Amino acid sequence: MAAALTRSNLRFSFQDGRVEELCAVPTEETWVLNLKRGVLSAFQTSLTRPGSEEVQETDVQGVCLTHYENKLEGDLLTITKQKDLSSCTKRPDFTSYLASASSSYNTDSPVQSWPLLDSTSGCSQTVEGGILTESSCEETHTFRPFSRQTGGASTKATSHLRLVSRDGPVPTSTEQQFTRRTPVFETITEASANSQAETVTALLQHLDEVSHQEVRPEAPALFSRLVIALRGLEYPVLSKVYADTTDTHSRKFLVDAMPLVGTAAAAAVVRDMYTNGDLSQEDADAWFTSLAFLKNPTSDMFTAIAPMLESEPSQSAMLGTSALVNTFCKINSRCGEDSGVQQVMRRVEAQLGSGCRALNEEQKVKILVALRALGNAGRWVNAKQVLERCYTENNDMEVRVAAIEAWRHTPCEYDRTNLLAAYQDEAQDSEVRIAAYLSIMTCPTPAVVAAVKDRLTSEGVNQVGSFVWTHLTNLQESAAPGKEWARVLLGEELLANKFSTEALRFSRNYESSFFMNELNVGASVESNVVFSSKSFLPRSGMLNLTVDLFGESVNLFEVGGRIEGFESYLDRLFGPDGYFPEDTVATALRGLRQQKRETEATTLEDFLEEATDEPRGSYYLRLFGNDVHYRHFRGLSGSNEPTTSPLALLMELARGGKVDYTKSYQLLDAHYSVPTVTGLPLTLGAQSTATVALRMDGSFSVQSLTDVNIQGHLRPSAAIHVDGVMVVDAHVTSAGVKVSSTMHTSTALEGKVRVSGGSLVDVAFDTPKQRTEFIDMETKYFYVRDDKDEEIEKEEPLITICSVDILGMNLCKEIAMPSSSCFSLPTTLRAYLEKTDTQTGYTFRYTKTTNEISLLFDAPGAQNSRRMALSLEAHSNKLLAKVDSFFIKAEMNGEYMWQHDRKSVKTEIQVGKDIYLMKGGLLTAYGDVMQVEPSLELSVNGRDLFNTKVLIIADKPQSKYSLEATTYHSAMREPLSIKGTFQKHQEGDTTTYSARMEQVDHPVFLEYDGTFSPRDLNTKITMRYGPIDLLAEETWSHTYENGVRKIKGTTTSGSEFYGVNTKTENELILAPNSIMLTSKLDRVSEFGSGVQTLLVDLQRTPGNSLTAVIDLDSIHSKFNGNADLRKASPGHYTGLVQAKLSTPVTGEMTLIDATASMKDISQPGTFNINAEVSVTIPVTTVTLTSEVYGDSQQGKINLQTQIGNKKFGLMMEATPSSLLIDADVVKHVVVNAKVRCVCACVCVCQMSFIYIS
Predict the structure, then answer these.
(1) Which residues form the Vitellogenin domain (predicted)?
(2) How far is CA 912 from the centre of its chain?
């Protein structure tokens, strides 16, 4: 390590304490340069004067907001600085590990990095006489997401510099070459450690041992080590290892591991495996798709993959390989000159021919896939002229649009002049023009934006104008930080909209976005809906989701598709002769057709387009900006591609007899590195692998789900291993912590399964083990030192919890939690079934014959019986059921009759010694007079428990209905019988209703009679319940003559039992200028009798007066109230309100006596209103007089109030030269002000203030 650090000198630019630039020799290793960056970061001081300040400082950790606190004592300057690491930019971010298709954006947010770590960083420096003598820095990083409370895996980094001696300048060679570097940490691409073939062979042998009978817990960890070991082998060795591995079981692990290695050597072996037929097409497609997510491809990979694209490459091969090219080009700007990339792209371009011309549907799909592959790669060799012919010649519209979209990932140096011309050409189809517009806007320049805006002002095609206007407007209004360029190039001025943008008729761009600058988090959803002049339905659409995280915009996914030929399909569904002839839908469709014809200009191509009655289209999925899935369909019968379900796979395996299936997966392989103050990287890593196995042996015959005959054993097993690591890597040594979790399950099932149609299901399985574990999870914690793991000892108590015994089995779990707060995952977690009885297994049998169904469940060998049996027999109109179980025995006999007018059922159930009998019946008669007679009887051991019988008769011609019901329950003394009748009679416009309900043999009844007509309403209700009686009658009449409406009503009610009789007479008269209500209530009872009257009289004389009178005369009091408002003369109004109450206790008293008067005596040029109000209430009298006067020379307000004996007043007089205020409210105050002008420029103001006590 010392030799590497001292091998070469490092020059750097040092300006006023800042390290601005490094000059390193080209051969300097990156890890060495990072260490030297750490030293320079501790050496750097951005603020050398006393005081405090926040600055942006660039060092090994990036560009960070740094707070300085400097103190000067004599010539000793003490510097303390704290960095906010969450604000740092230009440092590795976790989003770069999520996707290669991310783009950077700038924002002034205080949060600039992914908050996976809670980090602090600070330095203390001492400067004496302008020379740095000492510097100490300390930094902590705590990983929090899966830690409890304040705990968590934590790393502390410290550095200390101290001035030892001073030397003069050292001469350096001027012939040595240097490269410019920044002080910011450089990420190191991990190189695979060299491996030996013997290591791989030993791992394969060990894997075979731990998965031969079942998958053991250590299998996934061994598989992960196998993948890592394979990465260190060159192609000749790796190929020899694969060739020498002849054992089928061991080779299966190699086949599973090889696509996960991610090296050029492994890609070459995968190629050999595919060529030899050792790799299925499904596995090959999965590998090609995974290439889209490979982070660090090399040129040799393309050389290895290129032969696999020679003849008839699959869609996954084209899309996955092209996405890998795109990733390679992001880290290698001159990738277009790479021979491996050129080999791949030439094979893709060969699919296009000379101009994307297809003779059939199959060729068209191949061309479309190749065009999408070019769009993924964003690079090509000789495709420019071919692509231009593809979208300018008379090809299928989908091909033309796809050829234009091939420019979506290309560098801005690629010529887009022809695309701009295609957009500006109104003779082109609107789909082509919109696609061309979107392609040129991937590289916007002031000239391009100006050309687009100029074209928009003169646009004559509404489809194109609508889309471009909505797209540009959304760009202007977007909150996405990655679209800030639009506001710069387009300006803030709103674009004029002269286009129709109806959503159901014209092409549009939709965008919704938000961005929270405080958190540096946002998202945007964008959608394009493109119509064609040839259809009233949308022709294509897409939906895109992009998230903005801490300075990186990540395009998560995009889904889209294209349809044609659905117009006739909708007609067949919703047209006049369709399956759903809905008028509103058909009308809407006709309207859309007519609008299309009227608003869109057509070209010759519109009329020559081939019509089709068969719907067709395509759909695609893009992840992180790359096409990973594309499908083309024709018709609605579904995809012709085979689909495989887990059940179909299991049945296919079972038909083969003996099954030995093993599959290994890599679920996760990710790492995240951040620089520390020392220049050493802190790496967070996560790896997860899984191995599943299925062993089956015996006699297997599975034709379908209804024809199964299996006898043998089934042993499924699986294990998942997860490693999480936090390590500081000093290249020659490393240290950190590691957590390793393993989840394992292994069960065995032996027995038989027989299914024969729907007549037999016979299942039996053995339980030879006392304890069957189906989940076993163990977590271990380690210290990591130089790739060696030292386990942290643990002594946690084990907690066992078991459920209640179910059929001789207990479900139990065991758990142990770590005692340290630094760790949160349980160290032990198990779930298992444990036998609580001696059963050797379980049996289940189902049989069905013509007249019988039987079910049987049993646990042979159990000390406590678990037997449960159920049988059902049906003969003619009789049914027999038996239940025989360890907790109940029962037998049921039943018979039934089902005729047109007679239905009955009889059921007898015996449970133990008890016999339950149920009888039910239903008699019916139909015709003008309909009868329904249901009945139900229940008895237990010969004793009646409940019975009921109901008779309902409906005479529909006579509108007569009757009900008779008798009910008995064992808790009742005697049966309850009820009779009821209801009748309706119509004569002219008068309708009569009568109803009666009574309890037989008891004085309980309820009668109702009612007569209704437009003129009258009469009702009568009579009720009796034993001695209690109630009679209520109501009569109302209504007349309307000569504009006067009269409503009269009489209501009587009484009860002999309670000795109460009441009679109420009401009359309401509504006339044009009056309303009168009179009411009289006459009550007679032993508690008190009397008469109560109410009169409400409202009278109006139009334009003159309004009077109101209310008189209430009750048994113990009288109330009289009247109000009068009238116009005494023009401008003179008077008002009167009086209310009196008289009771035997208080006698007659006045509640209120109020008068008011207002006179308007204003003349032309004057305003003069006088008002007087007097209110007398039982306590006191209040009077108020007011005078308001105003003309051109003076204004006057005089308010005088007297409350009882107290007087209050306020008087204000104002002229152009004086103001007088005399206020006598709480105190008496007089204010007098006058203004006198001596000359035109001089005025004198006099003011007096008088306070009168």
Answers:
(1) 1-541
(2) 56
β-pair type (681-704, 976-987): unpaired
Q: Which run of H or of E encompasses 139? A: strand 131-143
Nearest Cα to Cα of residue 842 among 869, 863, 867, 864: 867
Phi, psi torsion values for 1127, nearest 5 degrees? -100, 105
Q: What are phi and psi of 444, to 5 degrees?
A: -75, 140
Strand order, beta sheet including 18-24: 11-15, 18-24, 179-181
What confidence score (pLDDT) does residue 601 get?
Answer: 38
Q: Is it the case that residue 873 has pLDDT exceeding 70?
A: yes
As a CATH number, domain 1-165+175-181 is: 2.30.230.10
**151 contacts: CB under 8 Å, gap ≥ 6:** 820, 821, 822, 823, 824
Report the CATH fold assignment for 680-836: Lipovitellin-phosvitin complex, chain A, domain 4 (2.20.80)
DSSP code per residue over 428-497: S-HHHHHHHHHHHTTS--HHHHHHHHHHHHT---HHHHHHHHHHHHHHHH---GGGHHHHHHH-SSPPP-
Q: What is the DSSP string of 1146-1174?
A: TEEEEEEEEEEEEEE---TT-EEEEEEEE
Contact criterion met (CB below 8 Å) for 434 and 403: no
Global pTM exceeds 0.90: no
Give the side-chain half-sphere CA count within 13 A for 906.
4
Q: Give the dihedral sign, CA 451/457/459/463.
A: positive
Rounded to the nearest 10°, the torsion over CA 1176, 1178, 1180, 1184 is -20
Domains of the chain, residue spans: 1-165+175-181, 193-279, 280-409, 680-836, 887-970, 1102-1223
Q: Please, which pLDDT band fits residue 571 given cuts at 50, 70 and 90?
A: low
pLDDT tens digits for 283-324?
A: 888 888 888 878 788 888 888 888 888 888 888 889 989 999
Closest CA to 229 of 194, 259, 180: 194
Helix (H) or strand (E) segment spanning residue 650: helix 646-655
The share of the chain scoring above pLDDT 90, in percent, equals 19
Which residue is it, tokens 């020679």? 310
What is the spatial distance between Cα 1087 and Cα 988, in angstroms, rounded to a whole number? Answer: 46
Strand partners, 337: none
Q: How far apart are CA 586 and CA 564, in angstroms?
A: 19
Locate 666 and state its tokens: 């890599």
At 97 the pLDDT is: 44
117-121, 548-552, 734-738: least confidently modelled range: 548-552
Q: How far is CA 561 from CA 388, 398, 507, 543, 554, in A?
A: 23, 10, 15, 10, 22
**Rounded CA separation 319/288 (Å):** 8
In whole angstroms, give the CA distance from residue 1119 to residue 943: 70
What six digits make up the tokens of 1043? Answer: 């504009």
Q: What's the confidence (pLDDT) of residue 99?
A: 42
